[in-house]
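pls design
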């Protein structure tokens, strides 16, 4: 999106058209990148993100940071907890060759939803 207000405008358009329930998360600001986000569910239930801003890492000596799942700076800058649907619901993905649904397994993380500490 061209600017953060575009996300707000998107919410207004969705609400005015009767799709307010399709706004799943946000608008908000990501903790790591400080980018603005808005997560929506399309009519088929697929999660999509509208996004503005990003961070640039151009220093080749920059060391990667491993963030803890419960680090509040990793989550959202404004302190909004992710909805349960974020961890419990996902789209069915089709195999690109067979077009059959890809089999899913149990989550690999020990914890599926971070504790919120703000
Ligand atoms: Fe995002």
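designed seq:
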């Amino acid at each position: 999106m061209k600017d953060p207000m575009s996300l707000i405008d998107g919410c207004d358009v969705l609400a005015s058209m009767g799709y307010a329930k399709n706004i799943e998360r946000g608008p908000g600001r990501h903790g790591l990148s400080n980018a603005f986000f808005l997560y929506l569910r399309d009519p088929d239930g697929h999660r999509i993100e509208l996004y503005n801003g990003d961070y640039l890492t151009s220093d080749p000596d920059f060391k990667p940071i491993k963030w803890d799942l419960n680090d509040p700076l990793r989550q959202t800058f404004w302190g909004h907890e992710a909805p349960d649907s974020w961890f419990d619901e996902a789209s069915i993905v089709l195999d690109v060759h067979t077009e059959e649904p890809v089999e899913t397994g149990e989550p690999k993380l020990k914890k599926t939803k971070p504790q919120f500490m703000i």
